[in-house]
Amino acid sequence: MRALIQRVREARVEVDGQTVGRIGAGLLVFAAAGHGDGEPDADLLARKIAEMRIFADEAGRFNRSLFDIGGAVLLVSQFTLYADCRKGRRPSFTDAAAPADAEALLARMAEALAARGVRVETGRFGAMMDVHLVNDGPVTIWLDTKELRG
Q1: Is the pLDDT of residue 150 over 90?
Q2: Rg, the chain, Cα only
Q3: Could you give the CA distance from residue 78 to residue 16 in angstroms, rounded to a whole number?
Q4: Which of 33, 50, 67, 74 would staple 116 via disulfide (CB 3.0–4.6 Å)?
Q5: What is the C-alpha to C-alpha distance for residues 97 and 93, in angstroms, rounded to an integer?
Q6: Residues with catalytic function
């Protein structure tokens, strides 16, 4: 699984003009599942995201986690994180998991975050979404479970 994490002051997702997810300070997480990913990948990403110390302390150092700041996660599915742009001009998405598998893994990731005590809001899987955010920093971090497992 892959996740692109952005530290935000606030973020929201709209579908057809309706807000379906909204957070204040925390992390906007764009996430996608690939072929062969499973529940251990969703759990690993949830743990990493919940525990990452990427919020500033009094000295301005990355020393605080979501728990320390009382932050939340806005989790948005984004299969395009598996875009393969090596050939031609149109990306290929053949490395992305089938929609039903990806939806289940993103739901598992949301559940794993919530089980750790993180407030989680989500977009709507498969919908055309408008994502609004105010970056904090900006701080943007890429995670891939294949790289995390070494």
Answers
A1: no
A2: 15
A3: 17
A4: 50
A5: 9
A6: 78-80
